[in-house]
Design a protein that fits this description.
Jelly Rolls, six-stranded mixed β-sheet, mainly beta
């Protein structure tokens, strides 16, 4: 396992899509289209539900590092609406050359980007200040199929939920994936 600190545009090299919004401005203000799915696309038809979530986090709060196992994978489109964070991604795709690597990227509302996080990544974020964060989850939530990874290996001073504090060690999760006792798609 290696940890990489990356700029936003470098995330594409690791399979995280960076989405730049389209804006329309006139004398009334601005309309920003941050994410759009064609209803005829595979991305739409392969997802069995869409949930939009907005979280408010105080400084030093860590949310996540979560992934859903097969047969209930979940992609996420994430955006920082206010504040700044370090987004954390762990590549759990056994076929990826980056399997087991952890990516960190600092993102703020001023960056005005959304990220499409594949279902093969555990994802979480660390709030650097009070933050408003939006998730668009593509695929239904399944508590039975959710895996939480304890993020304390990152070495951040953080506030964690009880669920995340009880999360599995990343090395144990990687071992289960290698032994095929846990399937991430």
């Amino acid at each position: 396992m290696a940890i990489f600190e990356l700029g936003i545009d470098d995330l594409c090299d690791f399979g995280i899509s960076v989405i730049r919004p389209r804006s329309q401005c006139d004398n009334r203000g601005e309309l920003r289209i941050s994410y759009e799915v064609d209803f005829r696309s595979d991305l739409y038809f392969n997802n069995k539900g869409v949930t939009k979530k907005i979280s408010r986090s105080e400084r030093f709060v860590f949310r996540g590092l979560h992934v859903q196992t097969s047969p209930h994978p979940q992609q996420k489109v994430t955006s920082v609406l206010r504040g700044s964070i370090v987004q954390v991604f762990a590549d759990l795709d056994i076929t990826s050359r980056n399997f087991g690597n952890v990516l960190l990227s600092r993102i703020s509302d001023r960056d005005e980007v959304s990220l499409l996080v594949p279902s093969t990544f555990a994802h979480g974020f660390y709030a650097l200040e009070e933050t408003l964060f939006e998730y668009l989850c593509l695929g239904s939530y399944s508590e039975k199929n959710e895996v939480s990874v304890n993020p304390e290996f990152l070495g951040f001073s953080m506030l964690l939920s009880e669920k995340d504090a009880r999360g599995m060690a990343l090395e144990l999760l990687l071992s289960k994936i290698r032994r095929s006792s846990l399937v991430i798609r």
